Amino acid sequence: MDLLRSLPIGLYLEQPVTWMHHLDSRVKMFWLTSFLIAPLLANPYCRLGLSSLLILITLSARIPWRVWRQQMGWLLMLACFVFLITAIAPDGMAIDHQVRLPPEPQELTLPQPSDYRYVIWSGKAFTMISLTITRRSIDLAVRISTTLFTLVYSSSLFLLTTAPEEITAGLESLIKPLRRLNVPVTEILLTLTLSLRFIPLVLEEVQNLARSIRTRAINWKKLGLNRSLQIWLMVAEKLLENLLLRAEQIASAMTVRGFTSPNEHKVEWHQLRIRWCDWLALASLLVFWGVRLTWGWKI
């Protein structure tokens, strides 16, 4: 399962067990929803604060360096790259201002009341490319880069510290009132759990097929485009066939164990318990939203 271990997003960290692992999955879902909603209509300082808060949470949890590098390192580089590209890109305010009044004499010219400048920097890069950084481009760069980092990394951190069974149990507890509307809650959550458990099987099949092609040492340049496409179509067909076979084996295993209907078999995903640390996290969430609603609005 080398391919699964090398993936930087969506992995569950079993060891070491951090303080985030002990939190109830429902509390972590509330925090995740808050991180997804808080950037809306927020000022740049609030967006930077959200990104900094995620980094502080990661450092306080003492997540190992190897996981930190995979989970956050590449995402920080991507966010910085997006920031630089957006900062030097045109800001969409291509308006030329024309003075309506004739210029005043030099002795009657009044000094500017402040040192405000819309254009922060303007010059040429590599002696050929003309670049201009404005206040609006900086605002757009902060908005895009922080939103990208906050949305992706908050979800990744949630999956990193929450087992699939805990996610399923938390969702079942939150959407349980929908059963009054005849919504098949258990069937939906069973499908979600099987999907989460099926992902490693998909990655394993992809890895096995990739290794089988690598061991044959195929010279792709001599094959040409048409024959290369035929080989990849055969690989895709074999992958689909293997996945359907795995799905049939899982269905047969559930049938043999007597799982025919959720109404007849009670599914225990995970035992949920609210502890003192969960109440502390909920209180911190109230403080978080108090600060956000007070000082976090866009100016």
From TrEMBL:
Record's subcellular location: Membrane
Transmembrane segments: 29-61, 73-95
Record's keyword terms, sorted: Membrane, Transmembrane, Transmembrane helix
Membrane association type: Multi-pass membrane protein
GO cellular component entries: plasma membrane
Predominant location category: membrane
Keyword Transmembrane helix: yes
Record protein name field: Cobalt transport protein
Species of provenance: Moorena bouillonii PNG
